[in-house]
Recover the amino acids of this structure.
């Protein structure tokens, strides 16, 4: 894969903003996130971090009331997931975020590890780039390993997924773990089509609460 | 520092159904933090930086719970961008801020953020209420709780150094 990307004539990202960019991972991000989400119970609550991660969730689940998706406030997805998980201990909560967003508030991994709600999972879609701002390389493409940081933070259940065959085991861990769980998806760089999603966070908040609590 | 008015605050917060207490260790909030840790009916969440508390409280509301963020004035600076989540989502938000860089401050490093705490919060559409006298605690905290959770707007209560006592430097 990396070889073909280095050849401008066969680069699958030719003509997109990701043209010429490479990463160590080779998972298809949309397919990998969908495989994980499809394994989770239908009442799982989803916090989707901004930009690419939100697109992956929307591509998998559609515009569903159980998704709260970010359009800004970069770095808040994981802490929002923690507050939600503590408020809803009987439901699974999954945060889907990107490497750039998680790096912005990576201390939240320690906060989550200490609180350790058993119903919280985090999936980090790691393409080693800041896609939204033009595919600049992120720290994870330069040696930083977020799974090692999650383990170092004290999260007990941590997996790095580099192959499609490892997704099911990671999904099972997210579905059944007795403590907070973290999955790092090493995905290739690409620019999937954007999915339209209202920017109105108050609308999404009210819709989410209406579906979950019966009141906005 | 008296524990009477902090205990009064704790009682009012708990009566209002607040069960997520997020904090960064702080002398000014010492009593509230200890009480929340000792209380089996609440989640006491130690943060690595105050801005995590903004996301956390929004998540709590999403799940039908109420939270409060306990921080020092210096922590306000760490929260600014994430307050866009509160404003854009029209989330209720309650923070109690122990002031430094305020009345009688002896550490010049505390002055810049202490003096800009209120204008910065107000620029982010957070309504500020200030307490300098123990006799104002009950009324102001009760009003703040009502405004935050019934009117669902962001509220900061600034606990001034007149109330807390300025930290002593020899």
């Amino acid at each position: 894969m990396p070889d073909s990307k280095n050849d401008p004539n066969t680069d699958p990202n030719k003509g997109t903003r990701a043209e010429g960019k490479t990463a160590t991972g080779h998972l298809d991000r949309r397919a990998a996130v969908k495989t994980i989400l499809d394994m989770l119970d239908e009442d799982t609550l989803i916090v989707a971090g901004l930009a690419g991660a939100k697109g992956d969730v929307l591509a998998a689940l559609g515009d569903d009331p159980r998704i709260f998706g970010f359009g800004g406030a970069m770095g808040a997805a994981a802490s929002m997931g923690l507050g939600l998980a503590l408020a809803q201990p009987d439901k699974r909560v999954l945060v889907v975020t990107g490497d750039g967003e998680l790096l912005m508030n990576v201390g939240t991994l320690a906060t989550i590890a200490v609180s350790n709600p058993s119903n919280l999972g985090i999936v980090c879609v790691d393409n080693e780039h800041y896609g939204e701002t033009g595919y600049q390389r992120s720290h994870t493409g330069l040696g930083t390993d977020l799974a090692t940081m999650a383990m170092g933070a004290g999260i007990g259940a941590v997996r790095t997924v580099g192959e499609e065959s490892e997704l099911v085991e990671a999904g099972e861990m997210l579905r059944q773990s007795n403590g907070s769980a973290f999955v790092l998806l090493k995905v290739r760089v690409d620019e999937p089509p954007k999915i339209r999603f209202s920017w109105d966070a108050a609308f999404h908040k009210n819709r989410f609460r209406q579906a979950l609590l019966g009141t906005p | 520092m008296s524990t009477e008015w902090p205990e009064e605050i704790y009682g009012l917060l708990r009566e209002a159904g607040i069960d997520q207490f997020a904090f960064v260790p702080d002398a000014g909030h010492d009593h509230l933090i200890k009480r929340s840790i000792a209380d089996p009916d609440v989640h006491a969440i130690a943060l690595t930086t105050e801005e995590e508390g903004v996301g956390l409280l929004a998540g709590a509301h999403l799940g039908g719970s109420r939270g409060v963020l306990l921080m020092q004035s210096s922590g306000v600076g760490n929260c600014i961008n994430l307050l866009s989540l509160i404003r854009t989502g029209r989330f209720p938000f309650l923070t109690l801020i122990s002031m430094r860089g305020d009345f009688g401050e002896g550490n010049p490093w505390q002055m810049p953020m202490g003096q800009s705490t209120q204008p910065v919060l107000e620029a982010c559409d957070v309504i500020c209420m200030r307490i300098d006298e123990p006799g104002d605690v009950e009324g102001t905290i009760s009003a703040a709780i009502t405004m935050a959770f019934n009117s669902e707007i962001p509220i900061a209560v600034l606990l001034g150094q007149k109330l807390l006592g300025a930290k002593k430097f020899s």
